[in-house]
Design goal:
Blueprint: H1 5-15, H2 19-28, H3 33-51, E1 58-65, E2 71-79, H4 82-85, H5 88-104, H6 116-132, H7 140-155, E3 161-162, E4 165-169, H8 170-181, E5 186-194
Antiparallel strand pairs: 1-2, 2-5, 3-4
Helix pairs in contact: 1-2, 1-3, 2-3, 3-8, 6-7
């Protein structure tokens, strides 16, 4: 179908995407603006995937102190250029991630950071639980794997549902910004402090 220029302008105003990307998205969705927005999002995430291997030497350290001054987070968020690092949008992203860490208390950034021994330990515990609950022996491994998956999604920052939009993960939220900035972005490290908590 031929796409009306006004429709392209409308989509562009809504998403900030390029003219040709807007045109392609509208053609693919037969002129449906809402579906085209979703299509552009997918296109952006696909482009973001390609940037994930690029080095990130710039960035900022963001601090978040929760109301009452009893909980605080420091997070280092890296990108490719100091130009991107100094934008208000990048600082907002870093703050959102710091707030996420304050709210959900993740133990690791990604599942790649989880020590192998910890995974083995958790699997053993879950198998014992299945055994003690009287589940058939042939189901123990499957049950343990399912519980391990839940444990990783709760404790790995990138896999957690994003607190401001639980329909997406923190990883997807970061990838949306990778697409916007056309730069790789990654969480380098973080620390969470709570008054009275043991290390």
């Amino acid at each position: 179908m031929k796409i009306d220029i006004e429709l392209i302008k409308k989509l562009r105003a809504k998403t900030g995407a390029g003219v040709m990307d807007c045109k392609r998205a509208l053609e693919k969705t037969n002129g449906d603006i809402d579906k085209a927005v979703e299509e552009l999002r997918k296109m952006g995430l696909a482009k973001a995937e390609k940037k994930l291997e690029r080095p990130t030497q710039e960035g900022i350290v963001e601090a978040y102190i929760h109301f009452g001054n009893r909980l605080g987070v420091l997070v280092e968020l890296n990108c490719e250029t100091d130009f991107a690092a100094n934008t208000p949008e990048f600082k907002r992203l870093a703050r959102d991630i710091a707030m996420q860490i304050a709210a959900t208390d993740p133990k690791w950034i990604s599942r790649d950071d989880v020590p192998k021994k910890r995974i083995e330990y958790e699997l053993q515990i879950y198998k014992e639980q299945a055994k003690n609950e009287g589940k058939p022996e042939h189901t123990w491994d499957r049950i343990a794997q399912g519980k391990l998956e839940k444990f990783l999604k709760e404790n790995c920052l990138l896999e957690q549902p994003f607190i401001k939009n639980p329909e997406i993960t923190v990883e997807t939220y970061i990838k949306e910004h990778i697409a916007k900035f056309s730069e790789n972005i990654r969480v380098k490290r973080f620390a969470r402090f709570k008054v009275g908590e043991e290390e």
